[in-house]
Amino acid sequence: MDIPVELIVSGTGLAVASAAFVREFVLVGRRRLGYRFQMDTPVTGETDTASLVGALANLSTPEAGGPQLDLSKLSVVLIRVENGGTLAIDPDDYTMSGTDPRVGLHVTFPGREVIGLAVTELDGPLPDNLGPGSGIGKRARGEGENFAGIIDLPKVQLERRQHYKILAVLKRVHGDGEPAEPVLTGRVKRGKVVETTSHSGPSKKLMALTGFLVALIAVQAVLALQPDPPPRDCAEGDLTLVGSTAMAPMIRTAARNYAKTCTGAKFAFDFAGTSDGLVELVRRGPSQETLAISDGPKGNGFDRLVEYQLALSSFSIVTHPGVALPNLTTPQVRDLYRGNIKNWNQIGGPDQPVVLIDREAGSGTRTALEKRLLEDNRKVFPFIPCAGRPSDGAQCEVRTTEEVASYVAETPGAVGYMQTSAVSDAVRLVSLDGITASEDTMKARTYPLTVVEYADTHGQVAGDSLSAQFIDYLIHGQGRAVIREFGNIPCLDSVGQEICTP
């Protein structure tokens, strides 16, 4: 099975973004103890600064009261410890092993001795967690080249975004030049201890992820701008579509979609009704450049035509909004079109004359009404176009679905029938026997006013012709999506089930 490139690109982006989120906020980001060395500065060159001398004098040093320190060997370090995760860090979350159970972190300074330290930037309960008896302290280990000063930091409870700082004075006891970098070690449950950076710029990981997603969007944009590949059996040529006005919006949309990808296909439209379309198809003879769309089977007199089932369609009874009847029974519809009901008050409606907005003889929509509801038994009215209808009405006829909608909406007491998908808020849709048209009621045939839509050709057409390929597009291809878009059901559904019966 071929997977579209766009789907692969989108899936990759979703997977990477999801993995980054899970890693950052679920696996390791829930508890994150961050630290950074904000300052590690030698005192040399600063010895004349009175404020520094005062600061050093305020630190507790083992040399207090002893000989003056050699300030050229001193350095000042500022360490920031913070909770950078999404959960609070409790004392029980520290898992660093050691001889003192109060200690959760160690800061090691190779070649330097810690001669004094102070805690700064305390807030909330932090003073209690870093005070006397908390486990905070300084010590040393090793000798000569292996000498290192150590600061022990206690298991401090830190709420989200809470932090503290340690200011320490160090003395160089081994080596020359730049001292070795200090190291902080520790562990926390279901999280990690990480060295952070200042917030002066975005993180490298965030920048990398952003760059990846931007590149992904760019690739998708390029793919979206590429023209859709033509269908497997794309045909060229000219094709005139005639027939049902009820199906005209659906067929126009399907033809436009086909032509977007099959750029060599050119369509013309002349929808004037089912009967007129079939007659025009016969008149043009065995041409492959005309295709008729009909509401219902072709009927007698069109033996040379070949028909193909396209869709199961529904029609609905509609009234002027002022009639205000939500439902009509099948017998009531029959009485209306047989002329037995002349005023709406006869069936519980307003005291208003009934005006029948009818389709002209030969209309596939009218044929569907007569066969499905009227038992081919209705009053034969003299032909009166609705444009010339007397003011008190009774019955008049129009040619198209659009005219039915317009006259019913504008004429008090009017009732008509039309393609369900064409019904708008300007008219009132009426249920039949308490049932409205839907996919379920159409498939079950519990909704009475349904009809099978056909495509008709004059004789068999060549398989590589535009007529044949467009019919295949409607029956087996993407045209089925357009059929559903207009509220109809493709006769051949996506799993190959036959839906339509004559």
The CATH class of the largest domain is: Alpha Beta
**Could you estimate the helical fraction of the residues in percent?**
25-40%
Radius of gyration: 43 Å
* Count of DSSP-assigned helices: 12
CATH superfamily placement of the largest domain: Periplasmic binding protein-like II
Strand content: 25-35%
Q: What structural category characterises the helix and strand content?
A: alpha/beta
Number of domain units? 2
The main sheet comes to: 11 strands, mixed
CATH topology of the largest domain: D-Maltodextrin-Binding Protein, domain 2
List the uncertain runs: 46-53, 58-66
The span between the termini is: 35 Å
Tally of strands: 20
Based on the structure given, which CATH architecture of the largest domain is correct? 3-Layer(aba) Sandwich
Shape assignment? elongated
Average pLDDT across residues? 84
Explain this structure.
With 502 residues, this protein is of the alpha/beta class. The chain folds into two domains: 5-195, Immunoglobulin-like, CATH 2.60.40; 234-502, Periplasmic binding protein-like II (D-Maltodextrin-Binding Protein, domain 2), CATH 3.40.190.10. The chain has helices at residues 5-27, 50-58, 126-129, 204-225, 248-261, 274-284, 330-337, 364-372, 401-410, 439-444, 466-475, 479-485; strands spanning 31-42, 74-83, 103-110, 112-120, 137-141, 148-154, 163-172, 183-186, 191-195, 237-243, 265-271, 290-295, 305-319, 327-328, 355-359, 395-398, 414-419, 428-432, 450-458, 489-490. Strands 10, 11, 12, 13, 14, 15, 16, 17, 18, 19 and 20 form an eleven-stranded mixed β-sheet that branches. A five-stranded mixed β-sheet has the order 4-7-2-1-9, with no helix packed on it. A four-stranded antiparallel β-sheet has the order 5-6-3-8, with no helix packed on it. Helix 5 (248-261) runs antiparallel to helix 12 (479-485). It holds the Pfam family PBP_like_2. This is Phosphate ABC transporter substrate-binding protein (PhoT family). It comes from Nocardia fluminea. Keywords: Membrane, Signal, Transmembrane, Transmembrane helix.
